[in-house]
Amino acid sequence: RRRVYFEPDDTASEELWDKRCCTGAKLVAAMLGSDEEAGKMYQDQRTPPSLASRWQGDLKQELETWGWRNADADEEFCADFDEYWHTVDSMEALGLNRRPKSEGGDNICYRVEHGDTQKKDDKDNRVPIYKQTYKVGDKEYTATGAHFQGAVNPVGGVIFGQYLLSAPHAAEEYWYRKPKVDELPELRAMSDVMWGWWNRDNPNIRNIRYFWMQQIANEDTLQLIASALKNAKKELRGWPGTTFDLNSKEGQALLGSPNGAGFGYFLAQHKAQLGNKWISKVTVFIGNDNVADSVSIANADLLFHVEDAPEKEPED
């Protein structure tokens, strides 16, 4: 897979911009509203309507059932925020610990894979993803090759998204065709997988303060970032970067982006556990600014700021 970098002139098409603004604006309304109001917005069929996710708790068993395996998330780079991610300035400014838990720090690494890209048979031949299967009930499914890797800092209240390949995209890549929805694992959304991580080794799940997407390599998201910065007459810079309010079109487009929407769902689908929280602003900056001597190898990071949703004014 080729690595995609940020290009300031590679902006979003009008169609992409409008679509993602719309996604973001709807998520803002869902985060700010009650669970029933959010359910109505998304035409939920429950009585009363609800946006609550069916996936709750640490999801260890459920992930295993749906073909996900825990892979070794190498702490040497997953939670090495100094030497690997080079996010010293931003993390110091935010007062966040930069060490892995194994070294007495606050950061816990997670990685799940749907199938095993390294799997070998008895004769030491590689078993391709499309030949790896699992059963749920009486139905057989095929592995997709999807993976989610990130880190969780329960003390500082951060979830980091690092290497992410969703099941629909992975299946298309490994099966050489577009998958049908009923061929995919029912437990597949990034927001649900991360909810499982957030519910482990965490005495206070309401302490969610930031969602941090590192080294973004999604082409649509990078184009949306380029458009947002262009509209604001700003350039991609190191910390403190550029912050967009979520009442702005730019903020809504970034929340609605492929690298943001999952975090909106994370909050909107877990109101019972988290209380009413919303993403109030998003900061765009070069995560590796102290090593990126030119914007050509800069990694665009997105930091979504979480706050309690403002109390609704009582209606007369």
Automatic annotation (TrEMBL):
- What's the protein name? Uncharacterized protein
